[in-house]
Amino acid sequence: MKRNRVRIGAAAVATAGVVTGVGLWIDALETGHADDDGSRGTVAAQPKTSKCVGTKPATTAVDNPDDTPLYRLLDDIDRLGQNRFAHSFTGLSVDEDDNAADLYRIPSASFDDAVCDAAEKGVTVRIHDTDTSRADLDALAGRISEDMNRWDGTFQLREVGVDARGWVSVGVDDPDTAEPVLHDTFGDERHIRVVHVEQAHLD
Question: What's the superkingdom here (predicted)?
Fold first, then answer.
């Protein structure tokens, strides 16, 4: 099992009614089963994956050891995904062990070319097909988290977050009860995954 990091964008995570996470990287464990994370709901088939390896000469920032080819590429992908290719961009994660970035996007040859052209030598880009954009997932997450207390008495809605791989993860106290209610309310089984989350406690 290896550790990677997942990009969490603005309005991506809501906990107890508070929206947080503006451009943060969080640690996540990569199990090798990206199509099934143990959550409930409809599990998509294994998406098509391709990759490229950077050929652009790498540079080193003398005054900033954290300014690496990998993290420069992540910044480039972020800019492309938020602007020119916002209609295609779904998510982004980084695998530091393999010096690689994982890009999730609706298939786009021009997006792939732009990302691969930006990659410096030694950096690998793994490109994964999805069927939805980050903008659509953010909108869905916003609808679900609009009123975190909406279902009190039926189940507790505890967390709502956009997963870079192409779905909204919904954390609740009782998945068996919550799953059919959420799917019936929002009508998007493919992009909503319901998981059990313990109650957060303030230290």
Answer: Bacteria
